[in-house]
Automatic annotation (TrEMBL):
It catalyses: L-fuconate = 2-dehydro-3-deoxy-L-fuconate + H2O. It comes from the Eukaryota. This is Mitochondrial enolase superfamily member 1. One of its GO terms (molecular function) is L-fuconate dehydratase activity. Keywords: Lyase, Magnesium, Metal-binding. Its cofactor is Mg(2+). The lineage of its organism: Eukaryota, Metazoa, Chordata, Craniata, Vertebrata. Its EC number is 4.2.1.68. SMART domains: MR_MLE (SM00922). Signal peptide: none annotated. Pfam families: MR_MLE_C (PF13378), MR_MLE_N (PF02746). GO terms for biological process: amino acid catabolic process; carbohydrate catabolic process. Belongs to the mandelate racemase/muconate lactonizing enzyme family. ENOSF1 subfamily. Residues 201-297 form the Mandelate racemase/muconate lactonizing enzyme C-terminal domain.
Length: 447
């Protein structure tokens, strides 16, 4: 049973200097420092359990998200955890409807990232108090209770609570077998970390060879900055992995709509399964036009990592604008909003392939997709979860990958907790790592 009154919320600006080695780089984010606004909530309960939550950011933006978390903190402080989760829909609504702060969103941008960080911490705490990993808390939850966590406002034209109930009811069939299957084999994954845009050809080759040796069969490559580079890199990868293995491409929003179609026609010979974020994440009809134009080439469109909220996902689905839906554990309003998107995707028959390219995103989103398979989609067809091989060593309960699949986490919680030492070292700007880097930068700019 959820218990304790929330007595403290603290938030830290934690940054990793990944840009120094090109990790995470793409056509639009050329110097990403993988970062997180890291929230810790404490209660007055005697068990001493804490909830940890993150949202993913890239360096400079983190301090802005930290401010937004502090602005929202009043909504959480002094509340009983049992009241929050007992009416989670109401609490979600309250947090996203603050009469003054909602002007900054609503339900998008910095305030929504802050909402995600806070709610991720709440879910972590709840799962810890129940003594279960988050995926298992969701799998074991009664469908009515699960639905009571979702705010259906703005989506009832495509998914009513009754529709959602039917989906979850159906999902009960064969659930036990699917859970056993997950525990035995895990959830299939693909890797992005061989082919960031800033990597040299020799790094790409070396990482791809190592990944093949480790049993990876699905690979994603960054494209979009320079066509000739793309052709060379895609050829290199396709030659290494052979014709049967799966290749995906990711442009991170760099093209106009016609440009996306033309560019992809030139990369079609490398047989990508999808092109991810070909254009602005807000351009629903643009994604639909690209989907239509690329369908004859056998290339699907994937998007979602910068999709603001359930409303945009709803419209992407309504407009046939995507063939692969990429949920993100830290951009949407935590588990609550992601549940609604998983259910909408099921209703439209669109496979969910979560986004996880960032710090901590693999740790979190694995819970959601494992739940999705066991209780909602009941299918692995055309589905896989992204994996990036960075920064797991900073987490107390890092992901476990075996045979290119995510093994379901066993520890209680949402796998969000970072090692204390890592947080201390990487806090910006006072952590040891940043102190050194900032001093070095200063020395460089001084005449
Ligand atoms: C800046 C980041 O690394 C992105 O490039 C990354 O999230 C990427 O889009 C992905 O799909 O993993
Ligand atoms: Mg991407």
């Amino acid at each position: 049973m959820a218990h304790g009154r929330i007595s403290r919320l603290s938030v830290h600006d934690v940054r990793f200097p990944t840009s120094l080695s090109g990790h995470g780089s793409d056509a639009m984010h050329t110097d990403p420092d993988y970062s997180a606004a890291y929230v810790i909530i404490e209660t007055d309960a005697e068990d001493g359990l804490k909830g940890y939550g993150i949202t993913f950011t890239l360096g400079k933006g983190t301090e802005v998200v930290v401010c937004a978390v502090n602005a929202l903190a009043q909504q959480v402080l002094h509340k009983d955890l049992s009241d929050i989760v007992g009416d989670f829909r109401g609490f979600y609504r309250q947090l996203t409807s603050d009469g003054q702060l909602r002007w900054l969103g609503p339900e998008k941008g910095v305030v929504h990232l802050a909402t995600a960080a806070i709610l991720n911490a709440v879910w972590d705490l709840w799962a810890k108090q129940e003594g279960k990993p988050l995926w298992k808390l969701l799998v074991d939850m009664d469908p009515q209770m699960l639905l009571s966590c979702i705010d259906f406002r703005y989506i009832t034209d495509v998914l009513t609570e009754k529709d959602a109930y039917e989906i979850l009811k159906k999902g009960q069939l064969g659930k036990k077998e699917r859970e056993e299957q997950m525990l035995r084999h895990g959830y299939p994954a693909y890797t992005t970390s061989c082919a960031w845009l800033g990597y040299s050809d020799s790094t790409l080759k070396q990482l791809c060879a190592a990944a093949l040796k480790d049993g990876w069969t699905r690979f994603k490559v960054k494209v979009g900055a320079d066509l000739q580079d793309d052709i060379r890199r895609c050829r290199l990868l396709r030659d290494m992995i052979g014709p049967e293995k799966t290749l995906m491409m990711d442009a991170n929003q760099c093209w106009d709509v016609p440009e996306a179609v033309e560019w992809m026609a030139k990369l079609a010979e490398f047989k990508p399964l999808w092109i991810e974020e070909p254009t602005s994440p807000d351009d629903i009809l643009g994604h639909a036009a690209i989907s239509k134009a690329l369908a004859p080439l056998g290339i699907g469109v994937a998007t979602g990592e910068q999709c603001h909220n359930r409303v945009i996902f709803k419209q992407l689905l309504q407009a046939n604008a995507l063939q692969f839906l990429q949920i993100d554990s830290c951009r949407l309003g935590s588990v609550n909003e992601n549940l609604s998107v998983l259910l909408m995707a099921k209703k439209f028959g669109i496979p969910v392939c979560p986004h996880a390219g960032g710090v901590g995103l693999c740790e979190l989103v694995q819970h959601l997709i494992i739940f999705d398979y066991i209780s909602v989609s009941a299918s692995l067809q055309n589905r896989m979860c992204e994996y990036v091989d960075h920064l797991h060593e900073h987490f107390k309960y890092p992901v476990v990958i075996k045979h290119a699949s995510y093994l379901p986490p066993k520890d209680a919680g949402y796998s969000t907790e970072m090692k204390e030492e890592s947080v201390k070292k990487h806090q910006y700007p006072d952590g040891e790592v940043w102190k050194k880097l900032l001093v070095a930068q200063d020395l460089c700019v001084q005449p």
